């Protein structure tokens, strides 16, 4: 690996990204870049009316993540310090392509490419792949009020979108390492053996 490891944990809503990222951050001793979700002022409105509030929501997330990664590059990666994040900046495109259409989507993509073309990208992705029943169970368990109205069809499309996106990222950058976790069968929270296996695999990837 030619530069400091930059690990991103990714997966659909409810996959357990932040939980696993926090565990790996503590295990590896890497600073964690934690996505802020609840502070987005458009979330409640978005889940009540996706069409009306999608552009505002996506722009808020994009600008916030841009600032986080800009700071991460300056404060950590350029200093040779490995970092770990509970998201990949490309998730902005995954969600925008699902919620935006026509001119709004084109405008968004133009802004996205302008902002992110020189941002640091993860060289390791830990991808938590999970089915709809697993996502629904975890979403209900964490009990975020604004997630109560998420449509099942929306989640199903996100599952497929993530599979496509991970393949695209690998095709665009052959040097990127992807570790896929089966979120339906591997319980990294309650099963110590499952977690230790994941942590061991991550350590091998960043050697």
Automatic annotation (TrEMBL):
InterPro entries: DCK/DGK, Deoxyribonucleoside_kinase, DNK_dom, P-loop_NTPase
Residue ranges of domain Deoxynucleoside kinase in the record: 7-207
GO cellular component assignments: cytoplasm
Active site: 86 (proton acceptor)
Xref: SUPFAM superfamilies: P-loop containing nucleoside triphosphate hydrolases
Entry GO MF terms: ATP binding; deoxynucleoside kinase activity
Family statement drawn from the similarity comment of this UniProt entry: Belongs to the DCK/DGK family.
PANTHER family in the record: DEOXYGUANOSINE KINASE, DEOXYNUCLEOSIDE KINASE
Protein name, UniProt field: Deoxynucleoside kinase
Species of origin: Bacillus amyloliquefaciens (Bacillus velezensis)
């Amino acid at each position: 690996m030619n530069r400091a490891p930059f690990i991103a944990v990714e997966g659909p809503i409810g996959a357990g990204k932040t939980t696993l990222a926090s565990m790996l951050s503590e295990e590896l001793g890497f600073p964690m870049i934690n996505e802020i979700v609840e502070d987005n002022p458009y979330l409640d409105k978005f889940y009540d009316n996706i069409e009306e509030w999608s552009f505002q929501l996506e722009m808020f997330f994009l600008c916030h993540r841009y600032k986080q990664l800009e700071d991460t590059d300056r404060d950590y990666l350029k200093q040779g310090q490995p970092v770990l994040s509970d998201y990949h900046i490309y998730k902005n495109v995954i969600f925008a392509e699902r919620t935006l259409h026509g001119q709004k989507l084109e405008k968004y993509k133009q802004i996205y490419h302008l902002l992110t073309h020189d941002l640091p990208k993860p060289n390791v992705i830990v991808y938590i792949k999970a089915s709809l029943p697993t996502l629904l169970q975890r979403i209900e368990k964490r009990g975020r009020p604004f997630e109560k109205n998420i449509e099942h069809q929306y989640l199903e499309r996100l599952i497929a979108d993530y599979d496509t996106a991970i393949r695209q990222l690998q095709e665009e950058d052959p040097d990127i390492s992807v570790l896929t976790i089966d979120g339906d069968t591997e319980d990294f929270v309650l099963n110590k053996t499952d977690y230790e296996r994941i942590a061991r695999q991550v350590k091998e990837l960043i050697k």
